[in-house]
Amino acid sequence: MIWNAFVLAIRAIRRNALRSFLTILGIVIGVAAVIIMVTVGQGATAKVTSDISKLGSNLLIITPGQRRGPGGSSSDSKPFEISDVRAIASQIGNLAAAAPVSNLGVTVVYGNINRKTSLTGTENEYIKVRDWSVAEGREFRDSELRSGKAVCIIGATVQKELFGSQNPLGQSIRVKRFSCEVVGVLSAKGQTGMGHDQDDTVIIPLRTFQRRISGNTDVGQIQVSVQDGTPTTKASQDISSLMRERRRVRSADADNFTVRDMTEIADTLSGTTKVLTTLLGSVAAVSLLVGGIGIMNIMLVSVTERTREIGTRLAIGAMEKDVLTQFLVEAVVLSSFGGIIGIVLALSASAGIVKLLGVPLVLDFRIVALAFVFSAAVGVIFGYFPARKAARLDPIEALRYE
User: Fold this and answer.
1) HSE on the CB side for 265, CA within 13 Å?
2) pTM (predicted TM-score)
3) DSSP 225-274
4) Segment 206-236, tens digit of pLDDT
């Protein structure tokens, strides 16, 4: 009986192909919108997580002063010293590495090529903290770190722009007023989510930076990597307690430093993206309800148009449930076709949109299946009333209908 009802539904749809297509347009748009919103949202979430992880795994950044929003200044606060870094490394448990970091924007010169880049004074732990590696050459030797020798490790972008295909190892570049020998090249990390090129950098020993660039022994910030599997919250609290003690912050006073947990920032950004995805998906789902109302209206018109046909079927012995099933199946077939077309449209559109936005394609087949089931359910819910009306027609009155 179901199969016969399905065949009759296909014939009815083919008789009014254009009207049937316009009827399911709301379902098509609803299903496509839900899948596109969820797919793009999940891609954005994956992109945010990936960009944060590029900065380093389980990364904590400790800076002097209290930052009050983007651009907040902390220059009036007491800077860190190298002894603070040593204290964190020796007294805080479950740390993978801790590195002093001092930064400055400089122009580096090789031959007749100039390039503005970021100069970082640090130690070898910095490479571990940032989850980096030296692709060519080597890290700094202990003697170079202690003596403040003019050696450097360059990023992939600096290598490309200054040396091209030439081997940079052993060559000297000019930084400010001194020449610096290139002893290593970092592996490429790419851009962050905010468009910052992480490979556009030059790293020199911290002592070299202090002697030849800053002229003091200050440390701009401390970067810490927590061991995998260890919550960063505990390490963040322990570091705060240690820094308050070392910087003699009274119990009633606020911290004069900031500990930023990149894992928490990533979780916050991912959570925000997920909320927006759910909200937009819910709004898009309203289109499915609008499409269902359209199906109900067209089915009511169809019942009116086919009143004599229904009367004939009832007069020759068809039961109410047969007529009910016929129109119900027709509504479900209509909405299901809309769901299938919507899925095909969504997959094509999603691939194009994520490519345009530069986010990964994260397709959740559970959402695809759920959208299809929901579209079929819309056919059952909104097709029931017209089908019930058709099934309860009086055969004699139906045959008299003009």
Assistant:
1) 16
2) 0.64
3) EEPTTS-HHHHHHHHHHHHHHHTT--TTSPPSEEEEEHHHHHHHHHHHHH
4) 999 999 999 999 999 999 998 887 888 888 9
